[in-house]
Structures are given as C-alpha cells and as structure tokens.
Amino acid sequence: MGFRFPGVVHTKQLIQKSFFNTKDVPKGFLAVYVGEKRKMKRFVIPVSYLNQPSFQDLLSQSEEEFGFDHPMGGITIPCTEDTFINLISFLNA
C-alpha cells in the first residue's frame, strides 16, 4: 500500500526549475544549493522563506558549517535534499 503526496511533487517541480546562472533567477527569488558535497542540487526559492524561523535555522547551520564562503557561489544548505523538500513543502502549506 502506498501513499501519494501530490503537493510534495508539485513543490519539488516548482523549486527545481532549471536556472543556470544568476541572471536566470527571477526577481524575488534566490538560488540555494542542497545536498552532499559531490551531489549538490540547485533550488530557486522565494526570498520570503528567509523570514521563516525553520528556514532561518537552516541558514544558521549553514553559517556554522561554511561561514560566508560558499564554494558553489550561492547559499549552501547543509541538509539532505529530502529534508529540504519537506521543509519547503511545509512552508508552502
């Protein structure tokens, strides 16, 4: 028996749009990198998430791990892709 979560799939597709450089990031959005060092995935998220306490916790973890030197050129979030997608789904609800 399986469960389907259509909202999660929609959210994942929304935030995984292919944006190849900073010029491709729409106004009001920012690029973040999520995942393991060799398997980083780029997500484009609304800047409004920066005000959410749960997202601010991730940013604090990022600051502790990377400081302000992000090797990918954007904000690097130190969590798994699944954890990040769950958080974004929660914020979209």
- Taking the alpha carbons of the first and last residues, their distance comes to 25 Å
Mean pLDDT: 76
The helicity comes to 25-40%
In sequence order, what are the helices and strands, one letter per element?
HEEHEH
Radius of gyration: 13 Å
Total E-strand runs: 3
> Which spans have pLDDT < 50 for at least 5 consecutive residues?
1-11, 14-20
Query: How can the largest sheet be summarized?
Result: 3 strands, mixed
How would you write the strand order of the largest sheet? Answer: 2-1-3
Shape summary: globular
Give the class from helix and strand content and strand pairing. alpha+beta
- Strand portion: 15-25%
How large is the count of helical segments? 3
Oligomer: single chain
InterPro entries: SAUR_fam
Family: Belongs to the ARG7 family.
Organism: Boehmeria nivea (Chinese grass)
Pfam family, one: Auxin_inducible
Which structural traits does this protein have?
93 residues, alpha+beta, three-stranded mixed beta sheet, 3 helices, disordered N terminus, SAUR_fam, Small auxin up regulated protein
Please, could you describe this protein's structure?
It is a single chain. The chain is an alpha+beta fold and 93 residues long. It has a domain at 29-92. The protein is 39% helix and 16% strand. It has helices at 6-15, 53-66, 81-92, and strands at residues 29-34, 41-46, 75-77. Helix 1 (6-15) crosses helix 3 (81-92). It is globular and about 30 Å long. The two termini are 25 Å apart. The relative contact order is 0.20. This is Small auxin up regulated protein. InterPro entries: SAUR_fam (IPR003676). Belongs to the ARG7 family. Pfam families: Auxin_inducible.
